[in-house]
Amino acid sequence: MSQRIDVKDLNIFYGDFRAVADIEMAVEPRSVTAFIGPSGCGKSTFLRTLNRMHEVIPGARVEGTVAMDGVDLYGNDIDPVAVRRQVGMVFQRPNPFPTMSIAENVLAGVRLNNRRISKGDAQDLVEASLRGANLWNEVKDRLDRPGSGLSGGQQQRLCIARAIAVKPQVLLMDEPCSALDPISTLAIEDLIAELKASYTIVIVTHNMQQAARVSDRTAFFNLAGTGQPGRLVEIDETSTIFSSPREQSTEDYISGRFG
Amino acid sequence: MTSTTSPPTAGRRSDGPPSRPAPALRRSGRVRDRGASRVFRWAATGAGALILVVLAAVAVFLVLRAWPALTTPAAELTEKITWLRGADSLAAFVGPLVFGTVLAAALALLIATPIALGIALFISHYAPRRLASGLGYLVDLLAAIPSVVYGLWGALVLAPLVQPVWAWLNRYLGWIPLFGGDVSPTARVILTVGLVLAVMLLPIITAVSREVFLQTPRLHEEAALALGATRWEMIRTAVLPFARSGIISAAMLGLGRALGETMAVLMILSPGFLYSFKLLVAGQQQTIAANIAAQFPEANPLGVSALIATGLALFVITLLVNMAARAIVARRKDFSGAN
């Protein structure tokens, strides 16, 4: 249920503007890879190319290859919709569907995939997914209430439950804790540590302590200046990045000298 | 205005009496609310109250002027008003008109809503941006056409055009009561009216629902897309549920227009005063508004009063329709996405 991602010569564009240049990296299966870097360096943009969400923005396009277990996600015969069913995503701000109940939210992805699912199976899946997101005990008595009535942290865990309900290969998280309080953040971080046993996880974060806490490998992105494309500076074991990075700019960034 | 109307306390406040060390922090409506904000408050309150006043004035007018007809005994009424069409009481006269009005409006809404939603979705989520703005402008232009022109067009162009279609419906689907009976050779029937009304409703329903569709939070659309939704699935899971109350509002705005539409109905429909579901037969139904316009010039005082009574009925229908729409919108408020 988890796969390796190999990125090669990836250039990402918004119209004519090259936002990210020449990315080359490998994301290991069953591990947490964190992307850090200053605002505007393209880490979120890059994350969104891993499930082809980048191209939903008008004018946005990608050159290069992103291979999941050897299959290029940008190949001619690849359906972006199918990619997104394999690569789940959790967004910066919790976004449960406000018109659906908690249970319906969890099942939203499964229902989309046009799978007929029996009532019993649906209940089991809701429970398993919510347990997987450490939310079951808090919401089991109000599964038919709207998801928007939960707290921010609970909503975010509901979104994680929704994402893992479709059993993706990879889970992308775009600053999943930046809108949350410290307690909720801790809950999400614990959850990430549990989820990595079964999923390949890529997380974008502005919080370097968070990257140090949750990730196995860390990638540092930087840009030369405004109007310049963002680049991958280096990627290594998290302990190495935070103790003895190869690049000076990485050390400057993690020691708080800029960004 | 401020200086003349502000209460004395406000005037003293600017001097800053030493006995009150922090006057600005004191919670007093009089002090906080002055100058432009006071003007604005009264203007807004006044505008809000004006709606109630106008509504009440219309209701009072309708009841007062309808009173003679409402209180006159049925026998006298039928004797003095020649065009009661054999109805033996006011209620028997109003009933078929209410029926015809609701039928025409319902037909129009039934035809217009799906098409309008389709156009709105195309403009908001499918069309390339430049095409979308042009198309939106064209649809808005439909609203600028006077209803008398729609009436002319319906009677002179559309009716002959759809007559063969109606005849076909009658021949092959005549076993459905709606399409049964002797099909009208001129197509001046309620279904043609419904069609023309539907065209008149298109711009308003399209414009309102398009705005609502465009307001769907990007976040929810992306949530659906990231789960592996196709564009249509994304619209079904994120856009339509979010826009639900807006769609109902749009339809109700359209229904309001359809219920009150006069000229187009008057010019197209061959009227009748029956409770009839025969959509393709002439001389079956009539609407309240068209009937008032048709009878008003020749009505005697009691006749005018009777017509105004029908107008009162239309007023009540419209109110009920709007209240029903509100109830529908409120029923699933928790899930509306407004919170």
UniProtKB/TrEMBL annotation, chain A:
| GO biological process terms on file | phosphate ion transmembrane transport
May I have one GO cellular component term? membrane
Q: Which residues are in the ABC transporter domain?
A: 5-248
Record's SUPFAM superfamilies?
Answer: P-loop containing nucleoside triphosphate hydrolases (SSF52540)
SMART domains, per this entry? Answer: AAA (SM00382)
| Signal sequence interval, chain numbering | none
Q: Please list the GO terms describing molecular function.
A: ATP binding; ATP hydrolysis activity; phosphate transmembrane transporter activity
> Keyword annotations for this protein?
ATP-binding, Nucleotide-binding, Translocase, Transport
InterPro entries from the entry?
Answer: AAA+_ATPase, ABC_transporter-like_ATP-bd, ABC_transporter-like_CS, P-loop_NTPase, PstB-like
* PROSITE patterns cross-referenced by the UniProt entry: ABC_TRANSPORTER_1 (PS00211), ABC_TRANSPORTER_2 (PS50893)
Report the domain of life of the source organism. Answer: Bacteria
Q: Which Pfam families match?
A: ABC_tran
Q: Which NCBIfam families match?
A: 3a0107s01c2 (TIGR00972)
| Name by which UniProt lists this protein | Phosphate import ATP-binding protein PstB
Which organism is this protein's natural source? Cellulomonas algicola
